[in-house]
Inverse folding.
């Protein structure tokens, strides 16, 4: 049972919260197996060299359309109480993908580096307390200092590049923190919190599913409402459709714009 | 489209003055931007667009001919007007996109209703520094048109009512072809009945536009646009609906100035 108020307070102050064991082991295993299969498929289809060059090796795109376990994750939406509490009931997916840190990957290897998500909007917001979304990283393996547990710097949400001395060991030794959690746990954080995948020094990949939820007026990185086949959408409940942005998608025709306007005025 | 260049006349103000006036006052009357002949032509094409549809009836009863760019050559030509482009670059940033491009017909039965554009982002993020968008209004009728602006109302917090705020209401009387810029979130209302207006609303590229013009426009219309027009219509926005499109955009983001900034992924 998640303590929504406590988790929300942690996110608003420290920038993150860790939620232990919020996905059942059977679903964790199904998600991990599905990610392995999809990663192998993508590597065969697009080529490892190409995916590496564009910084997408290890990222499994549009998982909502690519297997029953991901549909189940959408239906279970383990952290939704905290998301609704902090973002309101209209938040939807900016990004939904698998993240695999391969052996040898993580900080120190291309393309992994300290960053915050949505950095391109940070300077425009003009309000360092604003929470544009929530990043939910669901771990499918036990994570620790050896296999790429996520590094985060608590309290850095909303700070600019030059304000976080992540290249300074004296600062990082005191400020940075590496997540250790068991498979099925999640770290939920402000996307503007500075973070990075840790170095994976073992011989097995570290797998996770990332769901980045944002305010419903923000443009997502992918149009999930249109990326997912109708047969998959038909199996999902209303709340899952909302999370996919089905109710807030950008009209692509003038007729659709007219219909959306009519719905808003009803 | 060189034969209709210089349709939009230069606004004799520096970019910093334009931005400062919009940020502080919420509006800027910039004088004459269209010659009479162009106004008449555009006005006629707006009426035609309203007849052909689709249209949206705004809250007060005004008619919005939302597919104007599909029906009006005059309106389409504006998207590549250098002087309009420069003005908007300076007002909101050179990576902005079109959210609305429409003709507005104020009907005799229309009620006076305060409206503001980009209400949703403002509700979540009332920061004074946040600038989601700018609206351009030009009156096209020979008798001119009028509107009222509630000065600085874009700085009101979402919980504050317009009535209680007691902000000054500025009446603007515009002659044919004269233009006013409105800061996103400022409250305004069109006064004159029977007036035809051109309305162009621009938004920052990480905020959802009201319609994606890149897909809403027919390919024949879109093919007439130059680089600026295509960018304004969202050609380089990146809202993929498949893994292949997503990877293509990631590649563009790394290899081309036109790709959208990478927002997340690691």
């Amino acid at each position: 049972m998640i303590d929504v108020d406590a988790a929300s307070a942690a996110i608003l102050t420290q920038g993150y919260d860790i939620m232990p064991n919020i996905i059942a082991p059977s679903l964790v295993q199904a998600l991990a197996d599905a990610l392995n299969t999809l990663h192998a498929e993508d590597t065969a289809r697009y080529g490892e060299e190409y995916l590496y060059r564009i910084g997408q090796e290890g990222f499994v795109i549009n998982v909502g359309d690519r297997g029953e376990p991901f549909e189940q994750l959408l239906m279970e939406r383990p952290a939704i109480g905290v998301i609704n509490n902090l973002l309101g009931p209209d938040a939807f997916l900016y990004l939904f993908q698998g993240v695999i840190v391969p052996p040898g990957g993580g900080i120190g290897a291309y393309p992994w580096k300290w960053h915050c998500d949505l950095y391109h909007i940070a300077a425009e917001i003009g309000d360092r307390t604003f929470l544009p979304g929530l990043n939910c990283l669901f771990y499918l393996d036990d994570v620790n200092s050896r296999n790429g547990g996520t590094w985060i710097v608590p309290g850095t949400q909303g700070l600019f590049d030059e304000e976080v001395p992540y290249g300074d060991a004296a600062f990082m030794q005191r400020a940075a923190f590496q997540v250790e959690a068991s498979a099925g746990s999640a770290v939920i954080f402000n996307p503007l919190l500075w973070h990075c995948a840790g170095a994976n020094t073992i011989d097995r990949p570290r797998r996770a599913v990332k769901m980045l939820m944002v305010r419903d007026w923000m443009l997502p990185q992918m149009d999930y409402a249109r990326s997912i086949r109708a047969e998959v959408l038909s199996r999902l409940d209303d709340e899952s459709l909302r999370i996919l942005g089905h109710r807030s998608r950008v009209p692509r025709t003038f007729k659709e714009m007219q219909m959306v306007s009519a719905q808003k005025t009803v | 489209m060189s034969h209709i260049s210089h349709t939009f006349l230069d606004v004799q103000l520096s970019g910093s003055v334009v931005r400062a006036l919009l940020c502080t006052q919420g509006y800027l009357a910039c004088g004459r931007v269209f010659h009479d002949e162009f106004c008449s032509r555009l006005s006629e094409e707006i009426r035609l667009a309203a007849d052909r549809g689709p249209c949206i009836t705004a809250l007060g009863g005004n008619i919005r001919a939302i597919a104007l760019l599909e029906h009006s050559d005059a309106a389409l030509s504006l998207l590549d007007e250098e002087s309009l482009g420069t003005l908007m670059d300076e007002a909101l940033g050179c990576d902005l996109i079109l959210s609305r491009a429409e003709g507005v017909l104020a009907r005799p039965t229309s009620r006076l209703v305060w409206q503001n554009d980009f209400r949703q982002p403002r509700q979540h993020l009332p920061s004074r520094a946040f600038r989601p968008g700018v609206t351009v209004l030009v009156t096209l009728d020979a008798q001119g048109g009028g509107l009222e602006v509630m000065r600085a109302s874009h700085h009101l917090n979402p919980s504050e009512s317009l009535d209680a705020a007691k902000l000054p209401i500025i009446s603007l009387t515009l002659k044919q072809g004269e233009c006013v810029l409105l800061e996103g979130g400022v409250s305004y209302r069109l006064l004159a009945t029977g007036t035809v207006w051109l309305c162009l609303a621009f938004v920052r590229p990480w905020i959802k536009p009201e319609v994606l013009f890149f897909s809403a426009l027919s390919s024949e219309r879109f093919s007439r646009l130059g680089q600026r027009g295509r960018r304004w219509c969202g050609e380089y926005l990146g809202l993929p609906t498949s893994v292949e499109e997503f990877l293509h955009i990631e590649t563009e983001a790394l290899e081309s100035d036109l790709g959208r900034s990478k927002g997340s992924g690691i």
